[in-house]
Design a protein that fits this description.
Among the domains are: 128 residues, D-amino Acid Aminotransferase, Chain A, domain 1 (2-Layer Sandwich), CATH 3.30.470.20; 62 residues, 2-Layer Sandwich (Dna Ligase, domain 1), CATH 3.30.1490. The two termini are 23 Å apart. It has a five-stranded antiparallel sheet with strand order 10-9-8-11-12. A four-stranded antiparallel sheet has the order 4-7-5-6, with no helix packed on it. It is of the alpha+beta class. Helix 1 packs across helix 9. It is built from nine helices and twelve strands.
């Protein structure tokens, strides 16, 4: 693939918990675009982001932000009002997909299997468990496994959880509580309305948390995953269906847990990430490479879809 030479603003950084990851993603994207001959303006998002984008006047914005407010619809709405063309999903999709509970409400009625659970107030955890152990606690609208805790009978959180023990209950007023699903951690990238492949993630210790995702050597990536054909097909089908149902654009990544003792009934979608990482350890570039697409071509493919979408909408931003 080869695009005409463009002026691309790469939006990165910001102030979410995922700022370091976004900076790595953004710098990787910027260097890839420059290697293809494009003019790049790097923008580390701050409160003057609208002014800086207006001054830059790019042909397209590559949104390399992760977390809020770059992935939750806030920045998307701003760019819509400014008439900018930008990569990845638009406002409505971003609002829904960043919120794990809204995602369930959007997908489960369409037959997408997701874990049960409920929203709980953090202060209530100090009185009683919301679910039978083991269960998982996670923020409703954070990505990259930020603030995830697995509560078991043998965990050192106490029973009930003690308020002075470090955990997400000290950072967030409410949390999503879900049953813990034993088994394998799987993920599928979708690019240009096609599910690429399934990767199994094998952390060297603990579970696939923020450190395991972004510290080299802490997680083994088995790609493509060694799975029964029906599980591979189901993962790819569910990832593509979720991508379409949510209205995702560009690329997305769907994360799964599979209880291999239960067969197909043990497969659950956990979440859909509408702006997956583009770092050297990120899963979307890895799957794309195995499919024969190198990193600069992947970046151009994401931009090409953004431009095509804007053209289909009569030149308006999404």
């Amino acid at each position: 693939m080869s695009l005409q030479k463009l002026h691309v603003a790469v939006l990165m950084g910001g102030w979410s918990n995922e700022r370091p990851v976004s900076l790595m993603s953004g710098e990787g994207v910027a260097k890839a675009l420059e290697s293809k001959g494009h003019h790049v303006t790097r923008i580390d998002m701050d409160s003057d982001v609208a002014l800086r984008l207006a001054e830059a006047r790019p042909d397209v914005v590559f949104n390399a932000l992760h977390g809020c407010p770059g992935e939750d619809g806030t920045v998307q709405g701003m760019m819509d009002l400014m008439g900018l063309t930008y990569t990845h999903s638009g406002l409505a999709t971003s609002v829904i997909a960043i919120d794990k509970e809204l995602t369930k409400q959007a997908l489960v009625p369409h037959g997408i299997p997701m874990p049960g659970g409920r929203i709980v107030r953090s202060v209530d955890l100090y009185e009683r468990d919301p679910l039978a152990r083991p269960f998982v606690l996670k923020p409703v609208n954070e990505g990259s496994s930020v603030g995830v805790a697995i509560v078991t009978d043998t965990s050192n959180y106490g029973n009930p959880i003690q308020r002075d023990v470090t955990g997400p209950w000290q950072q967030f007023g409410s949390l999503l509580a879900e049953p813990f699903i034993r088994g394998k951690e799987l993920t599928v990238a979708v690019l240009a309305d096609k599910a690429l492949m399934v990767t199994e993630l094998k952390p060297k210790s603990g579970f696939y948390d923020f450190d395991a995702k972004y510290t080299e050597g802490m997680t083994e990536h088995v790609c493509p995953a060694d799975l029964p054909d029906e599980i591979t097909s189901a993962c790819k089908d569910l990832a593509l269906r979720a991508h379409r149902l949510l209205g995702c654009r560009g690329t997305s990544r769907s994360d799964f847990r599979w209880d291999d003792e239960r067969g197909l009934e043990g497969l659950f979608l956990l979440e859909v990430n509408t702006q997956p990482g583009m770092t050297p350890l990120s899963l979307v570039p890895e799957q794309a490479k195995i499919c024969g697409m190198d990193y600069p071509d992947l970046v151009e493919a994401i931009i090409a879809e953004a431009l095509e979408d804007a053209k289909a909408r009569g030149g308006s931003a999404r």
